[in-house]
Amino acid sequence: MSLEAVISNYIAHQRSLGKRYRHEATTLAAFGRSIGDIAIQDVRPEMILRFVDRDGTGYETRSKKYRALSYLFLFAVTRHYLRTSPMPKRPRKRVYSAYVPYIYSESELKRLLAAIPAATANPQSGIDADTLRTFLLLLYGAGLRRGEAMRLKIADVDLPQSLIHVRGTKFFKSRIVPLSVSLTGIIRTFMARSGNHYSAGRDSRLFSTRSGTALSDTGLGVAFRRSCAIAGIHRDGGSRNQPRMHDLRHSAAVHRVTAWYRSDVDLNDLLPKLATYLGHVGLSATQRYLTMTQDLLAEAGARFEAFAGGHRHG
Question: Which of 33, 54, 110, 170 is catalytic?
Answer without folding.
Answer: 170
